[in-house]
Structures are given as C-alpha cells and as structure tokens.
C-alpha cells in the first residue's frame, strides 16, 4: 500500500504532464485526420470445395483428411493469393484500366509527366507482362521506371497488400478477400480481379498437375506390368527346366508315402520279432533226433516250398516298389495258396516218430518260417524304398527356396501393380472432373465505412495518457532515491531521529524562528521538526546520566547540511536552558568558524588548555578552527585530547562536534573516537551506491555509538522550494 501511495503521489506531482500530453496528442491527431477521405470496402468470396461435401466426388478422400492437412491447404492457397506474382497481375490490370479508360484515381505527378508515346510504350509493356504473367525486372531501367509509376499510383504490390486482407472464415470452405480504398469501383475491381486471376491460375495448375500425374502413373504402371510378367515367365521357365508341376503337391505326396513306408517298416519289424519268438518256442518242443528224422523226410518237399517262397519274395518286392499295386497282390495270394498246398502235402505223409505225434507243430513251424522269410525280405525292400523317398525329398528342397523367391517377388510386384492401378484409376477419374474452386461471391461497389476520425482521436488521447503513465511507472520503478525517512530506515536498518524539510528561503534566521518573527506555515513546520529532532537526540543521550555528553555530527559526503543541522540542534538545546558548546571539527571546510566570528580556536585550546576569561553563561559557545589540511590527531596527541575534552564536560551540558564527512576517511573517524554518540546527516533525494554502503556499514557497526540519522532537505509535496543558503545560518 505504501508503494501504491507513493506512485499516486508521483502521478499527482506530474498531473500537469498527464493532462497536457494527451490534450496535445488529441489536437495533433484531429489536425491530421480531419481531411481523411472516406473508405469504401469490398469483399469477394471463393469456394474451395475442400471441406464442402456437396462438391466431393464419390471416391474422393477429402472427408478423411486430417484437420492439419486441411489447414495446410488453406494456408497455401492464402499465401499464393498474397504472393507477388498474383498481386503483380492485379497491378497490371489496374494500370491498364487507368491508361485505357476512365481511371480509378487521379493520375500521379509521375504519370502526368509521360507523353503520349511514353504512355503507349508503358501500356504495351504492361500488357505483354500480363500476357506472359511475368514480374517487372527492376535491374532494367525501363521496367524500373514502370515500377515507380505503379508505386506512384498506389498499384504496386506493397500498396495493395497494405489495404488487403485474405483469410479463411473459421473452419468453413470459403476464403474471403477484403480490400478498401477511396473509390468503391476500385475496391470491387481489385478483389474481383484477384479472385479471377487466382481461380484461373489454380485451375490451370491443378489440371497440369493432374495430367502430369496421369502420364507418370501410366508409364509407371507399364513398367510394373512388364516387371510382373517377367517374374511370372521366369518362374514358369524354371519349373519347366526342373520338371516341377506343383512343388507343394509333390512334396506332400513324397511325405505321405514316406510316412506309409515307415509305418509298414515298423509293422514288419514287429512281425519279425514275433515270428522268431514263436519258431523258437516250437523248436524247444522237438527232440534233436526227431528233427533229423523230420528233415530227412521233408527234404524234397522243402525244396519245392523254398522255390515257391523265392517267387513270392520277388513278387513282394515288386508289390512294394510299385506302391502296392493290386495285380501283384493277386499273384502273391495265388502263390500263397500253392505254398499252402505244398505244406499240406508234407503233412499228409507219415513223418512222425512212432513215439511222438507232432504233425501239427511241424506244419505250424513251416508256415511261420515262410512268414518270417517274407517279413525279413519285405523289411529290406521297405528300407530301400524309404531311402529312395528321402533322396527325392532332398532333391526338392533347393527348388523350394528358388520357387519361394520367385513367388514372393511375384506377390510383391502384384500388390504394387494393384495399388498403382487403383491410384491411376482414381487420378484419371479426378482429371475428368472440373476443378471445384470457384468465386462464390462477386464484389460490388458499396457504401463507405463509418468515419473513424473521432475514434482515432479518442484512441490517440487514451494511448498517449497510458504511455505517460507507463513512463512514470518505469521512472518510479527504477527510482531508488531516498525521499522520506521510511526509505532510509528500510535500506540502512538504522533509526531516523528526525527530518527537516527543504525550506523555501534564501537565508534562515534561527533566532527569528524561536522569537516568532517568521510566523509562516513553512517556518512553523520547520520549528516542529527541529523540536522533534532535539527530543529524539536528547532521549538517546539521556540513557547515561553524565553531564557534558559529546555528540559528533557527521555525514557521508560534503554538502549534505550537517552545518545547518549542528546549528539547529545547538539552538534547540539553548531554548531549553542548556549550556551548549559547538565545536567546528571540520578543518577542510570550517563553515561554522567563518560565520560565527568566534575568538576561541580548537588548536589553541588543545595546546594550552586555557579557558580563562571565557563566559560560560552565554547559552551557546562556538569553538572554531584555523582550517588547513590536517586531522585531529595531527593537532594533538590522544591523551591531551581526552584531558581537554574532560575539562569541557564540566562546563557544558552538551558538546556538539561537526566532523568532516566520512568520505574524508580518518579525519571523521578520529573525531568519532573521542565522542560519546554519533549522528549522521543524510540528504534526501539521492541514491545509495557501493561507496556509501561501506560508510553506512561503518556507522552501524560502532557498537551502539551510532544513534541514528537525520534526514535533511526533504521536499514538501506540491511545492517548489529553494535550497537553504548555509552561509548565514549562525548570524
């Protein structure tokens, strides 16, 4: 809130500027716009057909376009309409119209300087440029001059673009062209011409692109077709050369046959094991003598059975090799019957040992042996046939990889061909349809716009006022000057004992203030501030009950008013019946000494310590110095100074010492060593830099010796003050 109040005070301080600047701006604006001509607007509307579903074809994909794609198309169209090539065509049409019929504008001075032949030449060049749709070559002197003619008439690209606005209306299908000028016919002519030129240009461009796309796709389609046919022919030729009809079916048949052979081989192996076991069991039932008798008896019959069995094995082999052909099965069954008859014949004979009747076992054994031989021979044939199937399958594997490569290439080529064919058909169909771009609204000459003169005047006044406020705010924000006691406390973190206004007089009579000889409001306020400052200083000094307190009064730099403050505080103490000694400790600038006419000098007193003949009852006594480039310790030593000051304490209630400024370094700090308390004067309306911060840190670190600030030369709000003349403050 405090900052807001300060800013409001700043605005009130500059209220004359805040009123004068907008008033002058309004007057100047009114003078400028008073003769502004009326403005006639014109608007044309172009339907693009991009998002209008009523203009879409059955196979069009416009409805599936993303919003970003649609916006990009509209942006491209707007940029083309605002391009230099389009606006050049409008410029040519405008200048050709003005040179061949009633002009829209009064001829410019440059155009009036052309004679009849020059105008004919300019007209022919403009027509030729319009026909070829070329821009002017500004490197050619003749065409550069024609460009200057366009500019003088306001028909050049920049002039047209300045008063033109091309935009899409929201998310609609329409593009609007707005133009305004001093002539309603001119405004309508410009927007209609630009619409027609853009429509013609866009139509030709689209048709050329469609024809180029159709020809390109047609050639590409032929290339893809030839490539596809070449791949199909290669696959066919490879199958012929390698005698492959259908690799998938052939591999399936071989795999199926292999599985059958493996199944039959497993069954044969089981049968062999079973037969061997059965024959072994029968053999155990016979005595070796019986076997010899039986074998000798059946020798002839066995020979016949072996021959029949051999024939049967041969047929069995053929039966397996020929994929189990039925005709071989019939022959095998026939031989099986013959062998059965031979076995029966053998059983009919009396071959048994009279002691043993084992005819049936012998017959069964013979049958089992024949079955065993057939199974063993059939197993060998199955193994051979399984090896043949395996070799055939291995021969098909390399062909499989090659054929798969051919088929994959053919499939890829076929997909590419189909996609390309669909795209070709779509583009071909679209090229047969007319372009959807058309001018939906033709601009007509209309009425002028309402006058904006008063609006411009009001806006100029408001803007100038806002601009002034912004400038004042920037000044306020960047202004770090200390104006009031609160600012000084905030920055230095030290108390302010009082402040004195900047008095608007060339001289200040302190005696007159207390004798009420100056009863003005300014002097009364100054008197209050002096009393308040004395009270705060006295309260700080009263913390010790000792009489003769020594108070050093310093400042950071020269000229901040510590001489005036010293004199004022001295007079305030005199008014409350205090004995006051005012010592001028500033050897570099002894202002108090020069204006007091004192006969008592500091150097003499420090050397002699003689106070005889001095009247201590005068209320205020001034001890001056003889000046020169010296410091306190250069005048006397520390012990002597302490003794002399103790002597003075017994004669005065308070001793005030004006010291040199702190930027004099040790000259001020030497005085501060011998005083009880220190107060510093700070001039208002100045900033604190790094050098001043160092001196402030020195004062605030004096371990309680520094009691605070006295802010001097504070400006009163709303008044124009003069600086105080410090030369005569003690008179």
UniProtKB/TrEMBL annotation:
InterPro entries: Bact_polysacc_biosynth/exp, P-loop_NTPase
SUPFAM superfamilies, sorted: P-loop containing nucleoside triphosphate hydrolases (SSF52540)
GO molecular function: protein tyrosine kinase activity
Annotated GO CC locations: plasma membrane
Regions that span the bilayer: 12-33, 454-478
The protein's name: Uncharacterized protein involved in exopolysaccharide biosynthesis
Keyword Transcription regulation part of the UniProt annotation: no
Signal peptide range in chain numbering: none
Gene source species: Daejeonella rubra
Keywords: Membrane, Transmembrane, Transmembrane helix
């Amino acid at each position: 809130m405090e900052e807001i109040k300060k800013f409001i005070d700043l605005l009130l301080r500059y209220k004359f500027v805040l009123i004068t600047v907008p008033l002058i701006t309004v007057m100047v604006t009114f003078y400028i716009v008073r003769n502004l001509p009326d403005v006639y607007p014109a608007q044309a509307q172009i339907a693009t057909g991009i998002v209008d579903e009523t203009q879409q074809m059955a196979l069009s994909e416009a409805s599936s376009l993303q919003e970003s794609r649609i916006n990009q198309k509209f942006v491209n169209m707007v940029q083309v309409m605002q391009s230099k090539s389009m606006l050049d065509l409008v410029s040519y049409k405008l200048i050709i119209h003005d040179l061949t019929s009633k002009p829209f504008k009064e001829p410019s001075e440059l155009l009036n300087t052309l004679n009849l032949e020059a105008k004919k030449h300019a007209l022919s060049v403009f027509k030729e440029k319009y026909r070829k749709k070329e821009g002017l070559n500004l490197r050619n002197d003749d065409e550069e001059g024609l460009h200057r003619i366009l500019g003088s008439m306001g028909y050049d690209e920049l002039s047209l673009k300045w008063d033109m606005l091309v935009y899409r209306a929201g998310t609609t299908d329409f593009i609007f062209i707005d133009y305004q000028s001093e002539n309603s016919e001119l405004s309508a002519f410009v927007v209609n011409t630009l619409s027609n030129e853009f429509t013609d240009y866009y139509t030709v461009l689209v048709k050329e692109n469609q024809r180029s796309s159709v020809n390109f796709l047609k050639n590409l389609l032929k290339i893809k077709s030839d490539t596809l046919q070449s791949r199909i022919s290669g696959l066919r030729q490879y199958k012929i050369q390698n005698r492959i009809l259908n690799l998938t079916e052939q591999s399936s048949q071989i795999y199926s046959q292999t599985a059958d052979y493996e199944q039959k081989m497993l069954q044969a192996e089981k049968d062999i094991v079973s037969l061997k076991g059965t024959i072994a069991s029968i053999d155990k039932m016979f005595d070796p003598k019986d076997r010899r008798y039986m074998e000798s008896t059946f020798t002839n019959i066995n020979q016949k059975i072996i021959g029949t069995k051999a024939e049967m094995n041969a047929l069995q082999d053929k039966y397996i090799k020929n994929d189990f052909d039925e005709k071989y099965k019939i022959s095998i069954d026939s031989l099986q019957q013959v062998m059965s008859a031979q076995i029966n014949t053998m059983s009919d004979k009396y071959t048994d040992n009279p002691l043993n009747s084992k005819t049936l076992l012998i017959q069964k054994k013979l049958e089992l042996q024949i079955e065993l031989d057939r199974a063993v021979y059939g197993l060998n044939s199955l193994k051979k046939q399984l090896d043949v199937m395996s070799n055939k399958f291995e021969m098909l594997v390399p062909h499989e990889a090659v054929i798969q490569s051919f088929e994959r290439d053919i499939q890829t080529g076929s997909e590419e061909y189909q996609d390309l064919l669909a795209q070709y058909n779509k583009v071909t169909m679209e090229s047969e349809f007319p372009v959807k771009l058309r001018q939906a609204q033709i601009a007509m000459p209309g009425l002028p716009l309402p006058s904006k003169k008063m609006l411009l005047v009001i806006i100029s006044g408001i803007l100038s006022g806002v601009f002034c406020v912004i400038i004042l705010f920037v000044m306020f924000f960047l202004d770090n000057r200390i104006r009031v006691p609160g600012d000084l406390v905030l920055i230095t973190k030290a108390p302010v004992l009082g402040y004195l206004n900047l008095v608007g007089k060339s001289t200040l009579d302190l005696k007159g203030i207390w004798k009420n000889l100056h009863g003005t409001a300014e002097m009364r306020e100054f008197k209050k501030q002096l009393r308040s400052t004395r009270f705060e200083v006295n309260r700080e000094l009263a913390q010790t009950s000792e009489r003769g307190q020594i108070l050093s009064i310093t400042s950071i730099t020269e000229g901040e008013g510590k001489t005036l403050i010293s004199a004022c505080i001295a007079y305030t103490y005199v008014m409350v019946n205090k004995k006051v000694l005012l010592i001028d400790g500033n050897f570099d600038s002894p202002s108090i000494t020069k204006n007091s006419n004192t006969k008592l000098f500091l150097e003499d007193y420090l050397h002699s310590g003689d106070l005889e003949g001095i009247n201590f009852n005068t209320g205020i006594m001034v001890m001056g110095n003889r000046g020169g480039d010296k410091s306190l310790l250069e005048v006397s030593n520390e012990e002597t100074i302490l003794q002399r000051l103790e002597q003075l304490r017994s004669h005065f209630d308070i001793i005030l010492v004006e010291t040199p400024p702190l930027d004099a370094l040790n000259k001020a700090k030497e005085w501060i060593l011998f005083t009880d308390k220190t107060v510093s004067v700070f001039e208002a309306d100045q900033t604190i830099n790094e050098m001043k911060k160092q001196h402030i840190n020195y004062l605030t670190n004096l371990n309680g010796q520094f009691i605070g600030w006295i802010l001097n030369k504070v400006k009163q709000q709303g008044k124009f003050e003069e600086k105080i003349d410090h030369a005569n403050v003690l008179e």
